[in-house]
Amino acid sequence: MTEQPDQPPEEQQEKDYSWKLRKEAQFWGEMARVRSKDGIPMTQDFSRATRYRVRRSSLGWGDYFQDPKLEALTPFGRARTRFVEMAKNTEGNRSLDLCCGAGWLALEQARGGKTVDAIDISEGEQEVAREYQATLDEKIPGQINWIVTDLNHFTTEPEQYDQVTAWDGLHHIEKIEHLCEQIESGLKPGGHLLICERVWGGDSPSVRARIGKYLEQFLWTFVPTPKPYTYGRKFRELFGTLSLFFKTKILRKTHVSKPWQIQDDGFCSPFEDMSGEEILRIVNDRFEVEKTESYGCFTEEILRSLYLPRFLRVPTILFLGWLDHLLIRTRLLEGKIAIVYARKRADK
Ligand SMILES: C[S@@+](CC[C@H](N)C(=O)[O-])C[C@H]1O[C@@H](n2cnc3c(N)ncnc32)[C@H](O)[C@@H]1O
Asked: Does ligand 1 have an atom closer than 6 angstroms to the CB of 28?
């Protein structure tokens, strides 16, 4: 039998990449369907989102509780409202929304009268968005152009957008430097770049960020959370992390643990945390940054998953949310999420 020559590494890489990208698109498409089964998710419609338990167990993930009115009272919720107001009301009406998902931010901008090019790799997710928006009985002054494309290889015509927005998507992009170059080129001089991004996941998170991560896992273990996050499972995970900590002196190493991701069936996003803190560095280098805000050090997932009667949930969430914010503001801890308001430099 003649031996088959090894496949060239680039070809194999290309194959792996295409496979991962298809999986990414499928994962988010299915997530959008599952999320919208029992109510209106905030990821689909920020203004009309309802309060309900979002059941993700069919995807092997745990449930969480969406409570838009309560969230609007937390520091991050308030920041999201300010972000949306800004995105709707900037001057100019041509906007590009990156990693648009099920379209909530594109929809808000269209409600503000903008024409939005909404880009995502997941056709399934955009389908959920389009089906939902077709049911709306309001007159939306703007318009959304749905585009399915890979942002790692995205190119755009120069100076056609007044604004570029991205919410919680850029950390999935591998070629973030290339994408930022395209954003810069696509923006008109002085155009706005508004992003909200997970900036955890770099190679060397700060000690403050790592302490927050441990604090998060510790708290997560003790607070009541819905099935399948049982105490047995959470304690096993905590002991696993602690033993790793003592074995590897992990405070000096990178360790990203996400105990709320139930990955037994391997069905998750293959591009999670592809980029992290470098997003901030690149945006700072290329754009005129007007303001950067930091949120969510140790409470992000806990606030969504807290399994308590409402009269206890509300005060606990407000207390933990504001405590987290205070610790970030006093620089004792570091947030995982950054909201950045920037503009294209006028001299570019
Ligand atoms: C965490 S979701 C955020 C979605 C949305 N912005 C939101 O706030 O709900 C990340 C999104 O990035 C999209 N995405 C991941 N990799 C991508 C790529 N290479 N090109 C375009 N979109 C991508 C996913 O399909 C998914 O919709």
From this structure: yes
Minimum mean pLDDT range among 87-96, 151-160, 258-267: 258-267
Of 99, 122, 275, best ligand 1 pocket probe by most atoms within 8 Å of the beta carbon: 99
Alpha helix ranges (H) inside 102-154: 104-111, 123-134
- The sign of the CA dihedral 267, 46, 150, 124 is positive
d(CA 157, CA 245): 49
44, 45, 46, 50: CA torsion to nearest 10: -100
* Nearby residues of 311 by Cβ (< 8 Å), 6 or more positions away: none
31 in ligand 1 pocket by Cβ < 6 Å?
no
121 close to 25: Cβ distance less than 8 angstroms: yes
Query: What pLDDT digit, counting tens, does each position of 216-270 carry?
Result: 989 999 999 987 888 998 898 888 877 766 665 544 445 455 555 444 445 578 8
pTM higher than the cut 0.70: yes
Q: Cα separation of 152 and 117, whole Å?
A: 17
Paired tokens of 161: 């957008």
Q: Does the C-beta of 167 come closer than 6 Å to ligand 1?
A: yes
DSSP 8-state symbol, 65: E
182 CB-near residues (< 8 Å, 6+ apart): 154, 155, 156
